[in-house]
Amino acid sequence: MRDETVINSTGRVDGSGSVFTTAVLAVNALVVLLIISSNSLVLAAIRLDSCLREDIRYIFIGGLAIADLLFGLSMTYNFITVFALYWVDSYYGCLTAYVMPVISLTASSFSVFLITVDQYVSVVYALRYRNVMTATTAKRLLRAVWCGSVFFGCTVYMGWNTYDGRCLMLDAMSPSFLLTMGTMAYMLPILCMIVLYTRILTIARYHVRQIALQEQINQDPLLRERGVKLQREVKMAVTVMIVLGVFTFSWLPLVTVQFIDAFNPGFYKGDILFPATIASFNSFYNPFIYGFRYKEVRRAYRRALKRTFCPKLTAHS
Q1: Which uninterrupted H or E stretch holds 281?
Q2: Buried b / exposed e across 11-31, counting CB within 10 Å, b at 16+?
Q3: Is the pLDDT of residue 18 over 70?
Q4: Residues 161, 95: contact at Cβ < 8 Å?
């Protein structure tokens, strides 16, 4: 029997819920607003800034922003259906409230992985990077990620669920599905990214030392330019490592609950809302991380905000 402090046996909000639950719901609503606004800002900044549009890495960052934006919209749908309009009596209405976050989480996870792959190619195969990682290749990789994410999420509709009329995640979602999602969309990408970043930083440090030694012998401006570019790539790698760390720790509580329930159904009797709230924080951290680390991103943010809220001022400037 699941904890019913939030939703009673009909799937409706229980008015006797605790103050803590009410507070968590309020925080969730605020987080959803921040997710939608911050990721919309990222997409607007990329669209309005030609330098960002021409940079391959921002194609992947845009894909990540779209995934996080979808997560915010899916959480909005979740609140409306489960906590407001009570459409949870519907089979498809209930499952959609969980399928949409699954799709966005999977796409977000693999978008971060693609950013890592892009960094790996740019450092390890620096001379061949422009031939290997083109805009067309990047868009095809993102399409593949989204097609795979949508297909995986839609398997819930095809019968991979345990829906019995109660619209609670651990009741409606099959334990085997949650186990597969935790492994495929969380553990596997993280392990792969750790391996890639270990390789990236090892090679980058070796190249920086070699360039420094060569500069002492031969004052070649091309070497200096290559060193600056490599340092920029290392900075980007560190930034994505921060994104990876935030992703890992944000989703860890919810994925842990999913694994516990998969191996021992019914063992976890707590409220799933709190770990889900912690997980949702991840989707609005990324825009702030990139803005904090890069001047050009902050500049693009300001331009997008001026274009949105002060269009006349932007037109005259």
Answers
A1: helix 273-293
A2: bbbeeebeeebeebbeebeeb
A3: no
A4: yes
User: What secondary structure letter does DSSP report for 126?
Assistant: G
In this predicted model, what pLDDT tens digit does every residue of 266-310 receive, in sequence order?
776 666 777 877 888 888 888 888 777 777 888 888 888 888 777
Cα 56 to Cα 46, 127, 133, 134, 140, distances in angstroms: 11, 15, 8, 7, 12
- Residue 13: phi, psi to the nearest 5? -65, 135
Burial class (CB within 10 angstroms; exposed 0-12, middle 13-18, buried 19+) of 298: middle
List the beta bridge partners of residue 173. 161
pLDDT category of residue 265 using cuts at 50, 70 and 90: confident
3-state secondary structure of 48: helix
Number of H helices, E strands in the chain: 13, 0
Q: What sign has the CA pseudo-torsion 200, 201, 204, 210?
A: negative
Residues 154-157: contacts with CB under 8 Å, at least 24 apart: 154/99, 156/95, 156/98, 156/99, 156/102, 157/92, 157/95, 157/99
Do 32 and 76 touch, CB atoms closer than 8 A?
Answer: yes
Integer Cα distance of 201 and 189 in angstroms? 18
Structure token digits, residue 259? 């694994």
Query: What is d(CA 175, CA 171) in angstroms, rounded to the nearest whole number?
Result: 9
Three-state SS for 70-97 is HHHHHHHHHHHHHHHHCHHHCHHHHHHH
By the 8 A CB rule, do 45 and 300 touch?
Answer: yes
